[in-house]
Request: fold
Amino acid sequence: MFAIFIIRPLQLRRMRAVVAIFVVTRLALLVTVLAALSFLTPASCPVCREASSVPLLSALANWDGAAYLDIARLGYQGLDPSYAAYFPLYPLLMWLGGSAGGGSTDAFIIAGLVLSNAACLAASVVLARLAQDRTRGLKAASYLLIFPTTIFLSALYADSLFIALAAGSGLAARHKRWWTTGALAAAAAVTRPFGILGMIPLGVALWRDRATAPRASILTILLPPAALALWEAYLYALTGDPLAVVHGYTSGFTPRQPLQAFTDLLDPAVYGFPWFVAGAFALFVVLTVITWRRTERGLALYATAMMLVIGGAGSLTSSMRYELSVYPAFIALADAARSRVPNAVWWVVSALLAVFFAAMFALDFWAG
Reply:
C-alpha cells in the first residue's frame, strides 16, 4: 500500500531516473566495500565481531548492525540493557524476513540488507516527490544517495527505513491522507530514537486544515505517541525500568554538556574527522534555515527540531549519519545548487567522501 501510494502518482520518467541513480550508487558502494575488504587492512576494533563467515555480509553488519542482528535473532529479553536504544520495527521486520528465509544468521542479515536498500529506494522516490519540481526532485534524491554517510542507508541500520517512513508521512500529509500520515508517523516513532519527530508534518497539516479536515482525522495525531507508549510499556514489562530507552541510549557514555559537542571538536580523542563533522553540521544548519523558505512549514519545523536534537545531544560523533534523517535539507540543497558548477562540485566531493566512508565502515573504522 505504501509503495502504491508513493509510486502511482509519480511520472514514470522521473521514477526511472531515481531508480537509475539508486542502482548506480549502490553498485558503487558494493564495489567499494569489496575492494576495501580485498586490498586494505582492517582496523583493530576490540568491540567489533564477525557476524558472518561471508566477508561482505559481515562488513555490512558492523557496529550497530550487530545489535540489530542480535535483537532480530533473540529478541530483547536477556540482552544488554543498552539494546533498549534500538527501536523495534527494523529488527522485527528483519525477524520476519530472516525466519522466512530459514532462520540462519546469514538469512537475518540478508533480510535486513534487503529491507534497508528497499527503504533507501522508497525514501529517494518520496524525496523526489516532496520536492515537487522534477529537476529539483532528482537533485534532492541524488544528494541523499551520494551523501558521505550514505553507506548507512544500505547497511544493517534502521536509518533508511526511518527516512522512508518519516518522509512518506510528510508526503501523505500534503495530500491530506490523514490515516496514512498517522500510520507512517507511528511506524517512524518506533523505528529510531526521536522518531516521534516524524509526526510534526502531520500536526502542522492538521492545524492548517482544521476547518475542513474530517473530525475523526484529529485522532490520527494520537497514533505516533500511542505507538511509542506501547514500546515503552513493553520495555517496562520486560525490564522493570520505566526509563529503559533513556538508560539504554546513554549506556556506556559519560554525561556531557550540550556545548561539549562543539568545544570538543579540536580534541582528536573525541573526533577523528573534526572538520568533516563541523562542516557538515554547519551546512545542515544553513540548509535548515533555507527549508523555511523552500518547503512547507511542517517539513521546515521537522528539520529544525531534528537539528536541535542533533546539536543538543552533547556529541556530534554520529551527526553525519543522523543528518541523513533531516530529509527536507536535501530539497533545500537542490535549490542552493541550481547551476551546473555547484551541482557538479557537490557531486564529485560528496561521492568521493561516500567512497571513503564506505571503505572505512567496511574495515571496522568508526564512520558514524
Notes: Confidence is low (pLDDT under 50) at residues 3-7.
